[in-house]
Design a protein that fits this description.
The structure is a single chain. By secondary structure, this protein is α+β, with helices and mostly antiparallel strands. It has one domain (about 10-95, about 105-280): q2cbj1_9rhob like domain (Jelly Rolls). It has 7 helices and 14 strands. The strands form 3 sheets. An 8-stranded mixed sheet has the order 1-2-12-7-14-5-4-3. The longest helix is centred in the N-terminal third of the chain and has 16 residues, at about 40-55. It is globular. The two termini are about 35 Å apart.
């Protein structure tokens, strides 16, 4: 285990420069995250957000499925559990009034789009397989990366929901651990509109729990299984988490065991982001993992 103290601030590298250096890789090993500024162009961010608008406009006829990371309110319905091979919209918890009617316009009601648009939509396919991502993963991540899931996260103004402190390996476990997150700020992310917070060095801790299917069919729902009693760090500035305030176009790479969190967005500005999760083809992906793909849509790498 690396006993060196975590960095006080995220290590940043230039996306347009050469391959990551030994110092960059050492910072990744120490902190469990890496911030890469100017990784994605403004035009590419705008293109992805425009495509998301088109998808959301078609969501009026979709079933109402609310996304939440709060265990007591998580919706593990068939719409969610079958989304590993689909492009689906999920609503914000606070988008509805007491009568169950939308309290905001549809375009302001969607929490996220997920989870296979990187394989099913041309715009997301091009974005997810950008050279900068492949180069970064080659330097830091899985030896044989497979693009498992992606999410377009809206963090809507005033009602953008909190994402409770968690480890990505809880939801996308492999044996051995291999999941890596690529998180791209499509708009400026600040403390005010719900930026990411991460625990430097927290990836050296244990995996606390696993989220899995409770049975053989989507209708059987899901369950959490506790693995280790070590508590996750408390959210906000009073604990060990540090805010990752970044401008649009920034890439944040996240280790699968790294505790991270984002608070609710009570500002009048959205905080759109694109998140892509990868696993190693050499690792075992469990059959009871919540996200599954049918044989006709196999996982792919960057090509």
């Amino acid at each position: 285990m690396d006993a060196s103290p975590p960095a006080a601030h995220p290590r940043t590298v230039a996306a347009t420069g050469p391959a990551l250096t030994d110092d960059d890789r050492a910072a990744w090993e120490r902190d469990g995250f890496l911030v890469i500024h100017d990784a994605v162009s403004e035009a590419a961010c705008r293109e992805l957000m425009a495509r998301a608008e088109e998808i959301v406009a078609e969501a009026a006829e979709d079933p109402v499925s609310v996304f939440s990371t709060h265990e007591q309110t998580r919706t593990s319905d068939e719409w969610f559990l079958s989304s590993g091979s689909a492009v689906r919209c999920f609503f914000e918890e606070e988008a509805f009034d007491a009568d169950g009617e939308l309290a905001v316009p549809l375009e302001r009601a969607i929490n996220k789009i997920g989870h296979a648009q990187h394989d099913l939509d041309d715009t997301y396919d091009r974005f997810a397989r950008a050279e900068v991502f492949a180069r970064t993963v080659e330097a830091l991540g899985p030896e044989q990366p497979l693009l498992l899931q992606s999410m377009h996260i809206f963090k809507q103004p005033r009602i953008g929901g909190e994402v409770t402190c968690h480890q990505d390996a809880t939801f996308l476990p492999t044996d051995p651990h291999s999941v890596m997150g690529l998180w791209v700020a499509l708009e400026d992310a600040t403390i005010g509109n719900g930026c990411l917070w991460a625990e430097p060095g927290g990836h050296r801790g244990p995996l606390r729990r696993v989220f899995s299917r409770a049975g053989a069919t989507d209708a059987d729902g899901t369950r959490f299984t506790d693995l280790d009693p070590t508590p996750l760090p408390p959210p906000g500035p009073d604990g060990p988490l540090v805010p990752l305030e970044v401008p649009a176009g920034t890439l944040v790479v996240l280790h699968g065991l790294l505790p991270h969190w984002s608070g609710p967005n009570r500002s009048d500005r959205s905080r759109q982001a694109y998140s892509l999760h990868l696993i190693d083809a050499t690792a075992h992906y469990p059959e009871d993992a919540w996200l599954q793909r049918p044989p006709e849509l196999p996982l792919r790498g960057f090509t």
